[in-house]
Every structure is written in structure tokens, then in C-alpha cells.
Amino acid sequence: MNAYELPQPYLLFMGDATEAGFAKTALGLKDWAPERCVGEWHLPGGSVFTGLPELAPRQAYAEGARALLIGVAAVGGAIMPHWLPALVEALEAGLDLISGMHTRMADTPVLVEAAARCGRRLYDVRTPPKNLPIGKGNKRSGRRLLTVGTDCALGKKYTALALTTALQARDVAVSFRATGQTGIMIAGAGIPIDAVVSDFVAGAAELLSPAADGAHWDIIEGQGSLFHPSFAGVSLGLLHGSQPDVLVLCHEAGRTHMLGLPDYPVPSLKEAIELHLALARRVNPAVRVAAVSLNTSQLSDAEALAAIHAVREELGIPCADPLRHPVEFAAVVDACLAMA
């Protein structure tokens, strides 16, 4: 796996993002690694906020920041041309640049020139290891849990991190296996699965969660969605390569269409469970869906609990929002362990 030593702390670059789903890197770092974040910086029109102080690069440097981290994404993972003057400004203020975008900063001449001129470094996190193997489908020892979703950007990473934390609190041997740029930035290691050539996605997932002691759990961060026309390929490769024993289905209450695709409705939870099981059984006939992780961030507490209870009654398995309801989430953790 790739391991990273990134300059810290960070100034989070929010660009001009207007949807939280396109700012999940910044929001994830604020929630799971707040001690590494000094502030946030927006371009005109940006309306997604982490709650950190608004700081320009020179202010952030004076506050101790040592890198500007691109915390937002454009469709396709491109570094947008209108961001470039701001990124150069950060380099000139003394900050290194960290990016998890598909577009590599090392392939962006204006950034390469500015970094060289300013004596700064460019860190492209979304770079997979070289010489990845193809998937073999061989059964591996150890226990594996994969978070999967009805759509993109709705809580797969948060759920995996919350489950990892919960198992650690129970003295269970567990590792969080990061598969996306934000998870890698939090964990310090992992494989950016969506940057892997498609033939090698399953092999990368096998490498990410190798054979382990029979009592050890790998909690694998899911990517994309089998239902998303743009990103289903990476989801299927990760599903097959992970060879999970347990799946936790992630869903956002109230979401009606796929992220960025208003003409494609989000599937029902029953449909999502059926499809994931049908495909996962190809590599592990004993796989089970243990629970549903419900993102209730758009609901009041009373509405959230009602939605959780409705899912539990409909499906007959535990359901919780891992960030709001510890009692219900404890039942999710119990169900995951019981499936071993």
C-alpha cells in the first residue's frame, strides 16, 4: 500500500463548491482529523463550510499551516482552471499543495513552475502503487467488512471509520482500509481504488486486505455505488476483491436521485441489498448484510429516529446513524460481530 508523510497542519481549500457531496474530503478531515486543520479558504460563490476559520493562505501560514489541501472535487476529479491562481497564491505564501484529484498537479505546468520557483512541494495522493496484481479470488483468512451504498458520497467512509473506532473500543483486532483520497489522508495509507486501471481493481482490493489472523477484522471503505451509471465499475471491482464476510449498506434519508444525475432515482434498500448479495456471493457465498447505516444529517432528531425505526421494521436488521445515535449504532456493531 502507499504510505504518505504529508506536511501538516492543513488549510482546506473549498473552492467554489455549492454541494456538500463535492466537499467530502474537507468535511471528512474536519470530522476525523480536526487537529490537523487550521482553517478553510473559499473562492467567490463557494457555499459549503466546515466551520473552521476563514483564512487566506498568508494568514493560514502565520497560524501554522504548512500545506493547502484541496478539499473539494469537480466532476471527473479535475483541477479546475479557475482554481489555478488561488493554488499559485498558496505556493507563494509558503504552503505546499496536497491533492487527491484525478488530475495530477505534477502534470499541471503552471503548478510545477510555481512550486519550483517557490521551493514548495506538490503531493498527488491519488496515485496507486505500481505493478498491482489482477484479482485471483482465492479465499483469505481473517474477517472483512465492506461498506456499500445506494449512491456516492453518503457515508461509506464515515461508517467504516465509526465501525473501526467502535471495534477498537471493544478490544477487537481491527484495521481501517482506506480506498479513497480522504480516507488515505486520514489513515496515512491505502490504495486510491478509483485511480486503478479497471483490470486491477479486484487485485488492488485483495492487496489492501491481505490474509490475517482469523480474529482480525479489516473494515474496508467502500467507493461509488453499483447503481450509479458513472461509478459502478469501481464498486463492483472493490466488492469482488474485498471478498467481504459482512456488508453494511449506507443510505442517505431523503435522497431521491443519484449524485449529479437527477434523472436516475436512488434504489430502494431492498433492491440494493438484493443486488449486493447477488454479486458478492460470487466470491463469498456466506456473505450477509448485517445492518443499514443511515445518514440523517438533513433530518431533525425526532425525524431521524423515526426513519431509523422504519428501516429496522421494514428490513428486520439494525439501522443507525453512526454520528447521532450511539445506542442504535451499538446494535449495528453487535450485528456485524454476530455475523462472523
From TrEMBL:
Residues 50-128 form the D-glutamate N-acetyltransferase-like N-terminal domain. PANTHER family: DUF1611 DOMAIN-CONTAINING PROTEIN, GLL3100 PROTEIN. It holds the Pfam family DUF1611. It comes from the Bacteria. This is DUF1611 domain-containing protein. Residues 135-327 form the D-glutamate N-acetyltransferase-like C-terminal domain.
